[in-house]
Structure formats: C-alpha cells, structure tokens
C-alpha cells in the first residue's frame, strides 16, 4: 500500500483532511453526502490499518453507519457500503473481540449478497469475508454438536 512510507502517510493525512473539508461542504440534505462519508470512512480505515489508531476505526464505523442511512435501499452502491462497514466492524472485532460487531458484520454481509456484483463489490471477496465471519463465530461458540 502506498501509505506505508512517511511521505505517503502525509499524503493519507492530507487526503483525510480534504475529505473532511468536502464533507463539511456537503451538509445534511446534500444529495452526495453519503459519498463523502464513505470516502472519509475508507481513508480513516486505511490509516487505522497503518497506524493502529483506534479512534480512526471508531470514526470510520460511525461514518459508515451514517452513510448507510443515506443510501437508497435499491441503489447498487449500497451493497459496497454494506461490505465496507462490515469490514470496519470485523477490524474492531479483531481488536476488541466484541461479539456484537461480528454479528452485525454477518448481517451486513448477508444483506450485501442481495446486490448484484459491481466494480466496488467483488462477489468472491464478499463471500470470503462472510465465510470468515461465520467461521469465527463458530470458533467462538465451540463445537455445538
């Protein structure tokens, strides 16, 4: 990932600030606010991946929830938004082991399966992510047979 070097991290920090500025210009009611929310959440998640700053992940999750509320239920882009939010929740589950994050990620991924594949929503990645979450849930519950 390009953001691994110090200079690249500066690029990522600047991108985050620019996304914040764009979001401020797209206040509540703006028809494209969900796009700014999604973009900022993704970059915060990238920075969390690089630096491990939990507040970035928490903000990404918050923004992802807010963006999801603004997507129209029938919009094909909603599937990618569901997948992204599930990814952020999986990361938090990995860090904090909060079962509700895993359960919500599973629900979001199952909902994302209802949407047709797009450039932003790769079906194999979606299925793999859902399989991982279900396997992790099984592992945490133990053998129940």
The chain-level structural class is mainly alpha
Give the overall shape.
Answer: globular
> Which whole number gives the mean pLDDT?
90
- N-to-C span: 43 Å
Unreliable stretches covering 5 or more consecutive residues: none
Largest sheet: none
| Overall helicity | over 70%
- Rg (C-alpha, Å): 16 Å
Number of helices: 6
Beta strands, count: 0
Proportion in β-strands: under 5%
Order of helices and strands: HHHHHH
Features:
145 residues; single chain; globular; mainly alpha; 6 helices
Give a topology summary.
Layout: H1 6-25, H2 33-51, H3 54-70, H4 77-96, H5 99-112, H6 123-141
Helix pairs in contact: 1-2, 2-3, 3-4, 4-5, 5-6
Q: How is this structure best described in words?
A:
- The protein has six helices and no strands.
- The longest helix is centred in the N-terminal third of the chain and has 20 residues, at 6-25.
- It is globular.
- The chain has 145 residues and is mainly alpha-helical.
Describe the structure concisely for a colleague.
By secondary structure, the chain is mainly α. The chain has six helices and no strands.
